[in-house]
# Entry
Amino acid sequence: MSPADQTGGVFEIRTAADEDWRAISRVDTQAFGYTMSQEEEDRVRSMIDLPRFRIAVDRGEVVGVAGSYELHMTMPGGRPLPTGGVTWVSVAVTHRRQGVMSQLLGAVHDDIRARGEPLAALTASEGGIYERLGYGVATRRRVTSIDRRAAHVQEPFAAPPGSVRIVDRVAARPRLMALWDRYRATRAGEIDRPERWWIVNEAEHPHMVHAVHDDGFVAWRTEPAWHDGHPRHELFVTTMAAVTPAAHLALWSTVLALDLVGTITSTALAPDDPLAFLLTNQRVVRTTDLNDGVWCRPLDVAACFRARAYGTDADVVVEAEGNRWRIGAAGVAKVRSRADLVTDLAGLGALLLGGVAPTTLAAGRRLEARDAKALRRADAVFRIFPDPYLQTGF
# Structure
């Protein structure tokens, strides 16, 4: 076993190897209730860096797995932070509630730290698991539904014709990748999409359409529904990467002009997206679900909070896990000063991306403030705009 490997209880926790792949796939698909064809399994394997994965072994059988992807997450202010994107966390039903997951995640966190990545982040299949392991909800995931037939851009805002073009996504991959890198720098909480992500996505979704503007692009897929000559196709907008307001307007104008479409469903609209204000009827953009998005766990608190920008020049002393940091635009330093805020590691994770106000955390009993003045100052320091948002699943 490598130095990062460890044994907990009766289970061996070790680094995954090539010969473990089929067992890893079996444990994960059984835990999450899905199946993969050999072709799908091969595609997924191309995204997996097995030295970043840990498995739990009981008497020679793989009974649990957890790993991470090498990511770069945008911090408030636009700086990318090296991040371990925790993924594939699954334990066989026969080995639940025996400490397997905690041991696996502990080993994965140690590996992420050893790689010099100060942040662990994940998206959760269930909402009641990860807070006790130090993860805080840092963004929200919004699902919207738009009746395309009732959605009309206000006449004064009409985008100039010819500013958007449909492209061959494979031939246009370098351009799409460059546009994505420009876009993700504008939205805290978003991550990079390396070329292998695009290649796998092309294979998994061969009928996805991409429309490009000089300053952004949109991607969608369609589920036909003809209804005996009364077509109401369902359109799924999977990515909206608009770098400028002009691109945002032009790309949405293109989507809303598509014929034969009844409902447009999207997970690409952040809670503060201005689309509704551009339409003649704002009510047409309906939020059908608002759930937890990305969860953050700072592994190196100082490095995480040094990477982000702040709303004012003030600072705040935050206490968590028995340590105190002075955090603000001037930097981050460990101090012994009286704390303005007291929270835990999950509370720090919720504050990191600037989408959750300290006042909200205090009202939710996730944070205690020295007084109301300190809480107002903390809101001004930590909160940022636009809201952090993650479109890219991992």
